[in-house]
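Next comes one such specimen:
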Amino acid sequence: MISGTNAMAAMGPRCGFPSRWTRRAAAVLALLVTGLFIDIRCQAQTLTDEQLRARFLLNFARFTDWPDRVFDSADTPLILCVLGAADSLDGTLQALEGAAAGMHRVAVRTGVTSDHVAECQMLFAPDNELGRLAPARQAIGGHAVLIVGESDAALALGAMIALRKEDRHLGFVVKVGAARDCDLKFSPQLLTAATEVLP
C-alpha cells in the first residue's frame, strides 16, 4: 500500500519551482482533492447510494490522466459508459452529462456491450454485470479505458478502481498496475484519498 506521504512525494519538483514551494502547493492541493472525497462521505446521509456512486465516478474522471492520443481536441467529450444494465443507476449517471472533467465534458452512455467498450474513456461495471466484465476487458485490450467496479471482485476481472463499503462508509481501492497497463495515470491526490492502493 502507498501511503499519502509517499504518494505526494512521487510528484517531485515540477515547472522549475523551488522544492519547498512545490511541497507546500502539493500539500494544499492534496487537502483540497481529499476534501472532495471527504465531502462526498459527509453527505452520505443525505445522498442515495446511486448519487454517491455518481459523485465518486465524476471525481475519478477528474483525477485520472489519459494519454493525449485519446482525445482529438480539448473539447472532445470524455465518454463514461455503463456496462450492461444498471437500471437503478442510469438516471443518476445521466445527471453527470455535461459535467466538467478537466478540459473535457462528460458524455454518458448506458447499456454498453463489449462490442463498444473500446470507444469509452471510462467504463463502470455494476456488480450485476460482473459476468460481462472479463469479455469487456479483453475487448478493451490496450485502449486507455478506466474501468471502475462496485466491489473488490471487479479488480480480479480487470478493473483499476473498485468502490468499497467499510463501516457504512463508501471508499475506493485503486490498482495502479492495471491502470499503467492501459497508459492511464492516477493523480497523487487521488491516491491519497484512496482507502487502499494496490500495485
Q: What stands out?
A: The longest helix spans residues 19-42. The beta strands are 64-65, 78-83, 100-101, 104-112, 122-125, 146-149, 161-166, 169-175, 185-186, 196-198. The radius of gyration is 16 Å.
